[in-house]
UniProtKB/TrEMBL annotation:
Name of a matching Pfam family: Aldedh
GO molecular function: aldehyde dehydrogenase (NAD+) activity
Protein name: aldehyde dehydrogenase (NAD(+))
Key word Ribonucleoprotein present: no
EC number from the UniProt entry: 1.2.1.3
Keywords attached to this entry: NAD, Oxidoreductase
Keyword Oxidoreductase included in the entry's annotation: yes
Positions of the catalytic residues: E273
Domain Aldehyde dehydrogenase: 42-498
InterPro entries: Ald_DH/histidinol_DH, Ald_DH_C, Ald_DH_CS_GLU, Ald_DH_N, Aldehyde_DH_dom, ALDH7A1-like
Length: 517
């Protein structure tokens, strides 16, 4: 939002002393490229719990962006020459610095984004975990030695850093998504420019302050990890900039498509983490205690604002009624309130636009024949963006509103007659991020995991669609974008591969037995 007219900012309230602990002030510079600056618009970060101002941020403009890119290119000359294990040591120290600030940073995530404290701290822990992972990876990035068909020749595969990369992250994970990219990209030898969501600028600034302190302590260029807070003009510049060989973008499918087009126009690389219309399938032999516990977390966690949130519950007709009634009962026990209060499990939507989308979608669902079994309204007695977690039944599996991702705590419960039918319904939406089946049948499990099973990037069994571990690759197919972040071999996306043939003889045989004489 624009600069607040209110005289009272939360950063000045002793109750929120953790903001000062993170180095935040009433007015914060939103550009870091070795020094803190900013010459763009002044915006105010607000708390979604009650829409009060937290602090002001001076964003960057295109001149700030240009200066930052130039500084990043210079910093890369130093960073790329440092051996990967030494880069890993720096990332290890970043992880330790995050540990020291975990409580404060987790509280900031809750305050600025709106997710409950256990999720805010969990997000910071995820960044810490990926730092540990990347530290080990720094000693294990491997090439290959391949057999050559020519005598006296060696055939190698080498990996080298891309250079300066761009990272654009979303409001729902204002720390962890950057962490996935940052830790892996650093050990791979890249420098990076980050543009976080404009509504979570304070999280971005706090993280960069932590990282820059580690770089400074090690007498390295602090601009290795740079930041430009800004709006669409900065994002557009990043998408079009040929000096960024890779742009990692997390956000909506519509914006991601435009980013991908711009990057492809210049033959750059895109790492896209976009939307999800995720389903849990409940077979007739499922453990319903596990189903209900998992569904509550997956449907209402982060107030339905995770890309992995369960939006469709596809339930076998034999257990359908029981699941609906038990889930409704479980929803009545969700503890709602200020997300910084560790007792609460459900906080506000991030902004008013999310509330409007929630209300509009519920009206569309009702017009299409849906029945609101639980929720469906803005919560009374709250000054912030609180809405009721909502359960809707009675809609067809292919209803337009069911097929459209709404970033809100709305779940559609669909009745199915078989697992085969449920798998088809799981796969018929445009997105392909996360999915799960609850069953005790090995046949169902391996059907679900096989070539005719779930077409998603995350295919779970007897666990929620949300809550991925960092050791596996995270991402999805189709309109989710196809990108992979975090673990497994996701590191390859931050590097370029070269095939190298070395002739160590005085002869010059050609491949395929060609004689060119």
């Amino acid at each position: 939002m624009n600069k607040a007219s209110a005289s009272s900012y939360l950063v000045e309230n002793p109750k929120y002393s953790f903001l000062k602990e993170l180095g935040l002030e009433k007015k914060n510079m939103g550009v870091f490229n070795g020094r803190w600056t900013g010459n763009g618009d002044i915006v105010t970060s607000v708390c979604p719990t009650d829409n009060t101002p937290i602090a002001d941020i001076v964003q960057g403009n295109l001149n700030d962006y240009e200066d930052t890119i130039n500084r990043l290119q210079t910093a890369w000359q130093t960073w790329a020459d440092i051996p990967a294990p030494q880069r890993g040591e720096i990332v290890r120290q970043i992880g330790d610095a995050l540990r020291q600030k975990k409580s404060a940073l987790g509280q900031l995530v809750s305050l600025e984004m709106g997710k409950v404290l256990l999720e805010g701290e969990g997000e910071v822990q995820e960044y810490i975990d990926i730092c540990d992972y990347a530290t080990g990876l720094s000693r294990m990035i491997e090439g290959k030695v391949l057999p050559s068909e020519r005598p006296g020749h060696a055939l190698l595969e080498m990996w080298n850093p891309l250079g300066v990369i761009g990272i654009i992250s979303a409001f729902n994970f204002p720390v962890a998504v950057y962490g996935w990219n940052n830790a892996i990209a650093m050990v791979c030898g890249n420098t990076m420019l980050w543009k976080g969501a404009p509504s979570t600028n304070l999280c971005s600034i706090a993280v960069i302050k932590i990282i820059s302190s580690v770089l400074k302590k090690n007498e390295l260029p602090e601009e290795i990890c740079s930041l430009v807070c800004g709006g669409a003009d900065i994002g557009s510049a990043m998408a079009k900039d040929t000096r960024l060989p890779l742009l990692s973008f997390t956000g909506s499918t519509n914006v991601g498509l435009q980013v991908a087009i711009e990057v492809q126009k210049r033959f750059g690389k895109c790492l896209l983490e976009l939307g999800g219309n995720n389903a849990i399938i409940v077979s007739d032999d499922a453990d319903l205690d596990m189903v209900i516990q998992s569904a509550v977390f997956a449907c209402v966690g982060t107030a339905g604002q995770r890309c992995t949130t369960t939006r469709r519950l596809i339930v076998h007709e034999k257990v359908y009624n029981e699941v609906v009634e038990r889930l409704k009962k479980a929803y009545t026990q969700i503890r709602v309130g200020d997300p910084i209060n560790p007792c609460n499990l459900y906080g506000p939507m991030h902004n008013k636009q999310g509330v409007d989308s929630y209300l509009k979608t519920i009206e569309e669902a009702k017009k299409a024949g849906g029945k609101v079994e639980y929720g469906g309204k803005v919560m009374e007695g709250y000054s912030g963006n609180f809405v009721e977690p909502t359960i809707i039944t009675g809609l067809s599996h292919d209803a337009e509103v069911v097929h459209r991702e709404t970033f809100a705590p709305i779940v559609y419960i669909l009745k199915t007659s078989s697992v085969d039918e449920a798998i088809k319904w799981n796969n018929e939406v445009k997105q392909g991020l996360s999915s799960s089946i609850f069953t005790q049948s090995l046949g169902n499990v391996f059907k679900w995991l096989g070539p005719k099973g779930s077409d998603c990037g995350i295919v779970n069994v007897n666990i929620p669609t949300s809550g991925a571990e960092i050791g596996g690759a995270f991402g999805g197919e189709k309109h989710t974008g196809g990108g992979r972040e975090s673990g497994s071999d996701s590191w390859k996306q931050y590097m370029r591969r070269s095939t190298c043939t070395i002739n160590y003889t005085k002869e010059l045989p050609l491949a395929q037995g060609i004689k060119f004489e």
